[in-house]
Amino acid sequence: xxxxxxxxxxxxxxxxxxxxxxxxxxxxxxxxxxxQAIEHWAExxxxxxxxxxxxxxxxxxxxxxxxxxxxxxxxxxxYQFVDASAFLNHGKIMEQAYNLSVKxxxxxxxxxxxxxxxxxxxxxxYPFPTVADNCDFEGEVAAILxxxxxxxxxxxxxxxxxxFVLLNDVSMxxxxxxxxxxxxxxxxAKPATVFGPVAVTPDELGAAWRDGRVQLDMRVSRxxxxxxxxxxREMDFSFGQLISHLAYNRNLGAGTVLATxxxxxxxxxxxxxxxxxERRAVEMIDHGESRTPFMQYGEVLRxxxxxxxxxxxxxxxxxxxxxxxxTA
Length: 328
Prior knowledge:
22% of the residues lie in helices and 24% in strands. With 328 residues, it is α+β, with helices and mostly antiparallel strands. A hairpin with a 2-residue loop joins β15 and β16. α3 (88-98) crosses α8 (276-287).
């Protein structure tokens, strides 16, 4: 099942069902918003599935053409957004390039609390105050969970994943090391996050959803030029392990968004990267200097994942970087 949120002037938008080929959509009858659906998933999921089957069969009389420009993030705001760093290769490259000493505990995933009140849609312009912030991008996948009980085991946790979403987790690198050294987490380094057009149920991924990982290429381009395509199979921690760690001593409310961190591959020289910082770090290792510039105003980013049938799974994120209108 594929779901999206139509912009309708409200904070939470209007829930849509989107056809498997991403060509058509219909307003959901079983729930008005994504948050409502995820909070009552056991009740509404069978009803949504029936609507989805009718849409794909061409039997939804009120269907209309699906336009990614018309939708917000699938879940426009979240009570909790947590980002991981589940691809350890990314950290290893950064540590090697910049001689960093990072204290890590083997077997313990790195997670950080993020903001959930300012999600952008797949085609929204991305405003930021100044190019001096060193704007970067990070191609990721996130799970949207239903209610998860405290202390859940990793082997039981994945049943609470109801949807997956594609995202660009924007980073402002000029602020990152300063905020890391202060010890509390990210504020200026991690502004709004951009999400792909649709959220999909795990069954839509077919065999690509296995071993607790979304095993598809993260296809990233910058201004129409290939940038990288690392695969989700390279995650060092499964989604079950991430959820279990997050829920160790707390309940997770329905609608929690849990992201992977930037995709990264040990074969980065062949498959590229999903973020600028990693490419710049590789250049530092190879040449003693970083050569690829950070994002400038007017540049366009695109992120997409293709299924085993060659069709787009989540639709594409394609957005332009613009100057923010900052009030003095």
